[in-house]
Amino acid sequence: MLLTQVITKSIALSGMKEKTDSLMMEEILRMFMLVYSHLTPEEIFKAFELERMRLYETVTKHYQLFDTGYAAEILKKYEAWKLELKQKHNISKETVLPTQNQLPEVSESQKKKILDDGIKRLFEEYKSNDSILPPFSHVFQELVFRGIIPYPNEKSSLKLNEWYSEKKQLAKELVEKEIQNEISNPERTQSKSLLQQILGEVELGKHEKIQLKLEQIILEGVFQRRINEGKPIDDWLR
User: Fold this and answer.
1) How confident is the model at residue 14, as a pLDDT?
2) Beta-carbon contacts of residue 138 (< 8 Å; ≥ 6 apart)
3) What global pTM score does this model have?
4) C-alpha to C-alpha distance for 182 and 51, rounded to whole angstroms
């Protein structure tokens, strides 16, 4: 089972009323890959299955929304449950789940090919549509890692820091406008109170949607510059 399938199926089985939008799906996926990469997709699915079956000591409050906070709490409980099971039965990490359910380890060359393919697909998507849709955070992070996209740090120039600040402010304004439009939309998929809560966090500059919008703006700018130069992206994939 693929990780995206795990997320989609777990959300569907949760029965929560609020829709998990594509940006939140991307953030959940990123959290799983960065923080919980040591868990297999099967283990992650089992973690939410145990919650649905009320097999943990406590039930996690979700406020009818499957988001990163809720997902993180479930996985923390699963790891505690797994550790307790291991200690109780004196079993190894590998035998908590049957061996046949484990996915084969991905080699470094396979990982690079997966990332290269993701970069190429997203670039082609932008060329076709003049915009990109999530998921794209993994591509942004990889292009930063490869040095294609500069990212500010303690040694960065004032000019780069100022440029990122301007882009982040633009991202904040765009997200605010999108949420305000959604609030006024009678066919909205999320409750007005929840959207107003998210808008309040965005106005304070504290919501994850701002970072995602920032990454979208920068990626689209990098793609457009390469198109204007009339160059392929082969050098990004070396």
Assistant:
1) 81
2) 30, 33, 115, 118
3) 0.60
4) 31
Tell me 37's DSSP state: T
Give residue 90's pLDDT.
65
pLDDT means per 10 residues, the chain with 238 residues, are 79 78 81 83 90 83 83 91 78 48 58 83 91 80 91 89 95 93 81 84 86 92 95 90
Give the tokens for residue 79: 């790891």
pLDDT, residue 89, reads: 67
Per-residue burial over 28-63, b if 16 or more Cβ lie within 10 Å, else e, is bbbbbeeebeebbbbbbbbbbebbeeeebeeeeebe
One-letter amino acid of 169: Q
Q: What are phi and psi of 58, to 5 degrees?
A: -125, 160
Q: How distant, in Å, are the alpha carbons of 63, 83, 92 from that of 86?
A: 32, 5, 7
Q: How far apart are the first and last CA of the chain?
A: 30
User: CA geometry: angle at 80 spanning 76 and 83, to 5°?
Assistant: 140
The one-letter amino acid at 35: V
**96-101 own/partner pairs: CB under 8 Å, 24+ apart:** 96/43, 97/40, 97/42, 97/43, 97/46, 101/40, 101/42
